[in-house]
């Protein structure tokens, strides 16, 4: 670092280039430095060079991954929508056609014109899948990094459920047009659940999701985050018969304190054995 | 095909191109993640997430800013470091105290790096760094410590660690320069 840079007070931020290239900054510093990078061409060039150096350290660690990982990743890829790039802002993310139930999954589609609905997990479930997908991608603008991270984590869980070989979808709509939808996998014991068309609750109240099993107390599966945000429910036992939603005080309740506003049977998605 | 071309195809939704890209990068990605995360099950999980993220975010790759492989390994490293730090956050404080009290050997990398030409070169070049340069670089890159943590572990001022990291990386560049 030159004396001039030091005198001008740029030294401090600038000296973070090497720790940044090594991913050795704390999150707040990382953000601050990345902001600085946008306005400092010299730093950007330096970071690029130092990052290339750091990557040299990566090459020496290469190791063959477990064979099963390939199948899992490729299955997830088939079920996971892609993000729009910076060049394609109007791009509408879509799941592959087989998820919509309009085509057999890729790899089985040697004869694309031949319809084989009995292979298709989502054949009867277009509406439910549409619900889940629409709510997932409704919001594209104004996302903070935290939100992006949270979305990424959620997309990962959703991809996981969608990739399960026994993933099925189901939905239920009431006469007022309000609906609950779920994509569930009995083998994974997971479901993605969405509510749609329900009025926003007064402050201090939340929608809570419950798992109903014969001869057992309802078990909380979590709170809906508001809007159309899907809830990822895990650890569903295969004996579960339905999902139920109640309105509860903020923070949720250990047991339901009111009648369910809606219930969704799980038999059609492979539960209740 | 090179990773750069493949990544562009992947951004366009080409699953065959992704399979080919997987063949090229899954080894480096998995190896790097395992080096940082250590735990085999967690490493597999993080590597899978990274590879799936390549598919989801391929459109973000900007060829004007570096090679696809650098972008991919940088992403993998970032995710591995995030994982190891969050896992470490809870238990580390006391362990760090304990380790510091015992003055353990920091230079594990040199012994752990296995055979192989690239490995051998990296090992040799790491060996040519000063001890402090080497420790600063490897504690950060291979073990996922922040430069503050590195300074604490090595009982050095922050400024010294930042300088050692920079010097270490530039020395590595010079040493590895001739090797593809």
From TrEMBL, chain A:
It is found in: Cell membrane; Membrane. Its main location: membrane. Residues 126-261 form the Anti-sigma K factor RskA C-terminal domain. The keyword Transmembrane applies. The chain crosses the membrane at residues 118-139. Keywords: Cell membrane, Membrane, Transcription, Transcription regulation, Transmembrane, Transmembrane helix. It is a single-pass membrane protein. Residues 13-48 form the Anti-sigma-K factor RskA N-terminal domain. Residues 87-113 are annotated as: Disordered. PANTHER family: ANTI-SIGMA-K FACTOR RSKA (PTHR37461). This is Regulator of SigK. It comes from Streptomyces longisporus.
From TrEMBL, chain B:
SUPFAM superfamilies: Sigma2 domain of RNA polymerase sigma factors, Sigma3 and sigma4 domains of RNA polymerase sigma factors. Residues 26-88 form the RNA polymerase sigma-70 region domain. Keywords: Sigma factor, Transcription, Transcription regulation. The keyword ATP-binding does not apply. Residues 119-172 form the RNA polymerase sigma factor 70 region 4 type domain. Transmembrane segments: none annotated. It holds the Pfam family Sigma70_r4_2. InterPro entries: RNA_pol_sigma-70-like, RNA_pol_sigma-70_dom, RNA_pol_sigma70_r2, RNA_pol_sigma70_r4_t2, RNA_pol_sigma_r2, RNA_pol_sigma_r3/r4-like, WH-like_DNA-bd_sf. It comes from the Bacteria. The keyword Transcription applies. Belongs to the sigma-70 factor family. ECF subfamily. This is Sigma-70 family RNA polymerase sigma factor. It comes from Streptomyces longisporus.
């Amino acid at each position: 670092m030159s004396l001039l840079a030091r005198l001008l007070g740029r030294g401090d931020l600038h000296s973070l280039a090497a720790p940044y290239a090594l991913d050795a900054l704390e999150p707040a510093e990382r953000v601050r430095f990345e902001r600085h990078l946008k306005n400092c061409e010299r730093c950007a060039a330096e970071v690029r060079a130092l990052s290339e150096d750091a990557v040299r350290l990566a090459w020496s660690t290469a190791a063959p991954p477990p064979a099963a990982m390939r199948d899992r990743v490729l299955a997830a890829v088939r079920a996971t929508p892609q993000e729009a790039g910076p060049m394609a802002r109007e791009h509408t993310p879509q799941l592959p056609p087989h998820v919509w139930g309009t085509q057999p999954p890729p790899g089985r589609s040697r004869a694309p014109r031949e319809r084989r609905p009995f292979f298709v997990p989502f054949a009867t479930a277009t509406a439910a899948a549409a619900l889940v997908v629409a709510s997932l991608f409704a919001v594209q603008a104004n996302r903070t990094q935290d939100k992006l991270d949270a979305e990424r984590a959620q997309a990962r869980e959703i991809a996981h459920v969608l990739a399960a070989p026994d993933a099925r979808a189901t939905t239920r709509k009431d006469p007022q047009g309000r609906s609950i939808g779920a994509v569930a996998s009995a083998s994974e014991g997971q479901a993605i659940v969405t509510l749609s068309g329900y009025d926003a609750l007064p402050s201090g109240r939340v929608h809570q999701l419950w798992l109903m099993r014969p001869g057992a107390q309802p078990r909380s599966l979590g709170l809906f985050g508001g809007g159309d945000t899907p809830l990822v429910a895990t650890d569903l036992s295969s004996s579960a018969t339905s999902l139920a939603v109640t309105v509860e005080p903020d923070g949720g309740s250990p047991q339901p304190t009111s009648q369910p506003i809606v219930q969704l049977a799980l038999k059609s998605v492979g539960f209740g054995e | 095909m090179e990773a750069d071309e493949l990544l562009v195809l992947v951004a366009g939704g080409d699953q065959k191109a992704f399979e080919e890209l997987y063949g090229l990068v899954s080894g480096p990605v998995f190896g790097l993640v395992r080096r940082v995360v250590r735990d085999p099950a967690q490493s597999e999980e993080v590597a899978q997430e990274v590879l799936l993220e390549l598919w989801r975010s391929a459109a973000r790759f900007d060829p004007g800013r570096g090679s696809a492989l650098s972008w991919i390994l940088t992403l993998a490293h970032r995710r591995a470091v995030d994982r190891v730090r969050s896992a470490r956050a809870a238990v580390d404080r006391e362990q760090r105290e304990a380790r510091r009290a015992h003055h353990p050997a920091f230079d594990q990398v040199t012994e752990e790096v296995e055979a192989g030409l690239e490995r051998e070169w990296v090992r040799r070049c790491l060996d040519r760094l000063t001890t402090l340069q080497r420790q600063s670089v490897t504690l950060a890159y291979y073990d996922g410590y922040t430069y503050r943590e590195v300074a604490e572990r090595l009982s050095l001022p922050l400024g010294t660690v930042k300088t050692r990291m920079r010097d270490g990386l530039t020395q590595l560049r010079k040493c590895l320069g001739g090797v593809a």
